[in-house]
Amino acid sequence: MNALIVLAHPEVKSYNAALARATQDGLQRQGHEVHLSDLYAQAFAPDEHGRHFPRRANPLRFDAQSEQRFSAGRNALPHEVRKELDALLWADLLVLQFPLWWFGMPAILKGWMDRVFVYGKLYSSRRRFHSGVCAGKRAMLSVTAGSSSDACAPDGKEGDTRLILWPIHYALHYVGFTVLEPLIVTDVRGGRSGSDAERQKLLLELRLREQGTIFESIDGRPAIAFNDPDDWDELGKLKPDAPVHSPFIGHERWSRTGA
Amino acid sequence: MNALIVLAHPEVKSYNAALARATQDGLQRQGHEVHLSDLYAQAFAPDEHGRHFPRRANPLRFDAQSEQRFSAGRNALPHEVRKELDALLWADLLVLQFPLWWFGMPAILKGWMDRVFVYGKLYSSRRRFHSGVCAGKRAMLSVTAGSSSDACAPDGKEGDTRLILWPIHYALHYVGFTVLEPLIVTDVRGGRSGSDAERQKLLLELRLREQGTIFESIDGRPAIAFNDPDDWDELGKLKPDAPVHSPFIGHERWSRTGA
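Above: the input entities. Below: the structure tokens describing the complete assembly.
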């Protein structure tokens, strides 16, 4: 198996960077080929912008989707986008490693998605969801949060972190990935007082040692359920008798059928 | 009233840019002071990074929150962050104008949040939510989506766009804002065939003319409900008898009490 790990943290000595290396080690121990793409190390530009496209379909008015398709069709995508896209197409497993900042990805990783999920190459109106370019590949988020496990739980003040990740999971599902249940490490900023801080430090070290082991047995990891193509009518509305696999879809029905 | 509009679109001739100008016009007609911050025009760097902090609390290991607090306390924040932060503190109303890219903000706007929502200045562990620095101020999203109104509806394939915006709304609530119901314009990429495309173009022009009028009567716009401070116990868990104002919190209870 080929695996691509995309790391989005500005500090090489960070806990996130250590988790990414532990993931790499665990996968390599199983004989997999691993590529680690460190977005900060390569100074990946997060802003989708006309300057990235010297050959333009329309030089007078920049439209991201149109220019992505135009350049993709002429093998003229920006070098750093081509590189990331090739790694993505090569990989059977994608792991995104990042800290939760403001209930989402750090901007550099959002920009990786904005730029590398190329219209006309990774998706089109005909190649989406179950018929997406990445169908058959698996993707997984490995996330850290500064808040406590209580506050990140389904009844927690920070919101259920697993559900907060849903828009990202849905974007991965959109391009065809099978999305595995995420890894979420809470309390990464440690405890506040002496013995509490010491205990939390030990827990984080222990968790880091487990990371490789988790990826050694990745094949048994459950996937997140999404609605089937047949659950939608021709307008893209959920059929009345379909189950609901999202807090964002048919929320009157979510608590009855949602996982 | 003072209003700050933050625009995140790479094309000055875009529909998003036109909506931002219409918002500005509508507010000015009511006699309000308006500042428009065009993130692409000022080449705002979206990636929170050690290079933005020449004076460091810890030169050996970059931690965004620690360095934000350190620089904020020494009046040494990066110039472009200081500028945006001053505008934010000056404003009584914040409007974020952006296209929905991959179920979230374009990276440049996420980076504005990552960098300008400064720890130790705009929030701290004591100043959050109802006691946040922005308490008493209002914020509002004005968003465009390429998908159809059917697909963006509560039972739509793209997910209920209003709920997809919830992580962004919650981040604004976190720093204290009263969050108004968002404006969502769907189908902005227009119809596909001749008469359909023509009709959609006219609808978008009509909607653009309404934008200013909407902001002329902004005072009557309803706010999004969030849970009260008293709804949480000391661990940050929702009390059993509290209502639920989020698809991410207590989702077993969401459909029964959620708005």
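Note for the figure: The longest strand of chain A covers residues 93-99.
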